[in-house]
Structures are given as C-alpha cells and as structure tokens.
Amino acid sequence: MIRVLGIETSCDETAASVVALDDAGSARILSSPVLSQIEEHAAFGGVVPEIAARAHVEALDGLVEAAIADSGTKLSDLDAIAVTAGPGLVGGLIVGLMTAKAIAAASGKPLIAINHLEGHALTPRLTDGLEFPYLLLLVSGGHTQIVLVRGVGDYRRWATTIDDALGEAFDKTAKMLGLPYPGGPNVEKAAKAGNPGRFAFPRPMKGEPRPDFSFSGLKTAVRQAATAISPLSDQDVADICASFQEAVTDVLADRVGKALERFTAEFLEVSARILVVAGGVAANEQIRSMLQGLCRENGFGFVAPPLDLCTDNAAMIAWAGIERLRAGLVEDNAMGFAPRSRW
Ligand code: KG4
Ligand code: ZN
After folding, report:
1. Annotated binding residues for Fe cation, as ranges?
2. What mean pLDDT is predicted for residues 221-230?
3. Where in the chain is the domain with CATH 3.30.420.40?
4. How many CB atoms lie within 10 A of CB 324?
5. What is the value of ipTM here, to two decimals?
6. CATH 3.50.50.60 is the classification of domain 134-304
7. Is residue 279 lining ligand 1, measured as CB closer than 6 Å?
8. What residue stretches are annotated with the Gcp-like domain (predicted)?
9. Of the ligands numbered here, which is closest to the C-alpha atom of 119?
10. Taking the model in full, what pTM does it have?
11. Rounded mean pLDDT, 8-12
C-alpha cells in the first residue's frame, strides 16, 4: 500500500488530498477537499495574485488537516508529501511548497515536487486506469495544450497557445459582454439562446501547418462586435456568445483532428488509441460533444475524467506523487526545490 498527501495551490484553488494505491494496484482517493476562491476574485473579473496567495495562507493548514482526518489515516501512515511546485502564480506556489516542506521535515517523510501539468496528464490513469501512450487535450484558464503522454515523466507537447489560453478567451469574452466571472459557464449558458451564425468570427490557426492555437485575434473580433452595438440586448449577447463558441469549437476540431492523425501515423502498433480531455473548459458541452464525435470518426476512445478531477485539485498531485514513487522518479534534493512559476 502506498499513501501520499498531495497539496495544490498554483492558482485559485486551495486543495489537499490523500490518495492510496493498494498492493493489488487499485487506486483510491481517500479525501480531496478543495476550496475555490472564485468569490474572492469575482469582483475583479479574474484571479488577483495577491488575494490568491493570502487566501492560500489562510486556508491551507485547515485543508491539510481535513484531508488527513477525512482519509482515515495519520500523517505517520503516509509514504510521501507531493506538492505542486509549478507552473503557476508564484505566491501560491511558495505557500504550498513551504507548507509541504514543513510537513515533510517534521514527519521525516520524503517530499516530491510535482509539475501541475503532470498532475493533469496522469489523472486518467487514476480515474480510468489508462495505459501509455495517450493524447491529452488540456484546456483551462491558464493552459491550452495537446500533450503526448508516453510515460511517467515522459511528455511531449505537440501544440500550445501562442497567446491566450482558451479559458482566458472565454473569461475575457464574458467580461466584454458584462457576464460574471468565471466566464466559461456563463458564456455557455448565454450561447444556448443565441444564433451561432450571426457573427462570422475568425478561426485563428485553422488549417495552418503548425499545430498550435491562438485566440487573441478572436478576442479582438468579439470586442469589435460588442462595441459596434450599443446598447447590447440580451439577444445580442447570446448571439455573440454562440458565435464565439462556434468559432472556438471549430478551431479545436481542426487542431485536435490534426493531432489525432499524427498519433495514428506515429503509433501504428497501438490498438487502443485514446484522447483524454482535462481542464475547466472540458466542462463545455458543445466542445465535449464535438470531441466525442471527432474521436469516433478517427477511431479513438474519448476519456473525460469526472469534472472535479478535470479542474484543479490535489488528488491529481498526490496521484502523480504515487506514480513517481512507483517509477523511482523522485528527486533526492526536493527539500531544496524552489517554486518554478514558468516550469
Ligand atoms: O481548470 P480550471 O478550473 O482552472 C484553471 O484554469 O486553473 O479552468 C478554469 C477555466 C476558466 O477560464 C473557466 O471560464 C473555464 O475553465 N470554464 C469553461 C466552462 N467551465 C469552466 N469554459 C467554457 N465552458 C464551460 N462550461
Ligand atoms: Zn490546472
């Protein structure tokens, strides 16, 4: 049995979790409290780093205590402390890393520094027992990437955004239209009553040979459409949201389709081809059903971990710690590890 405490403070969720892997190889999340700071940031229309860091300081000790208490284990039962050491907002990373180091030092347990993206990348092995290799589409407020996951610690980034993240594009669109933060769910809701064909927004990067994403041109087009109409009626807002969502879904289909083709060409011997989606934008129904269809057409299985494990949480960090322990990929000098905000 391996039991690891995970700590996550890289953005606006404070989270702690205990995950166990038994000798038969089955994994269980014993506890995973998450405290979202959405309300603290909502008035500012986005995450304010100073507010986030302070909120992590206030919440983290209590969350760690709750995670251990709820798990039915004791600190002395744990095999290691895993913590997000980057990338993310440096204030939050410092809070998480210092806390984890203090717990590790006091308990004599090893510390494992985890890259937040590795946490997202390995989650489908916790939830669905996936085998390597598989493709991961990570679409959140901070990241828009297509990653080839080949093994623990063995990741190849096939595509990334050259400007805004997709979640950020949703959030900015919402802000321009006067919809509350976080924008994604509100844009999706408004889009349901809108006409996706009313605005012919650009599809940045669609059809380009390079595999990456770009959303800033689309954001500009949304701003122009929104400022050209005054005052904006509810129907205008709904139509802009629907047209925006249509444009991003179209771009994603093109970019992800290209990656599926590349995977198929490069891994001829792999019979179970899988695309995994993670990140908050994975909650979007239109995007989800497009991905499902795209996978079906290309002979891929589609895996979407439960939403609370798609968005930021500490179970994925604890799990990445377990994976690293099992693979023997634990740094000797993790106590000297400094936060890497751009890791
Ligand atoms: O993974 P996540 O919870 O946190 C980080 O980015 O760290 O992702 C949050 C992002 C936000 O930008 C939010 O607007 C977006 O995910 N999001 C959505 C939806 N729900 C959340 N975007 C589109 N449609 C949604 N239903
Ligand atoms: Zn994340």
Report:
1. 116, 120, 312
2. 96
3. 2-127+309-336, 134-304
4. 22
5. 0.98
6. no
7. yes
8. 29-319
9. 2
10. 0.94
11. 94
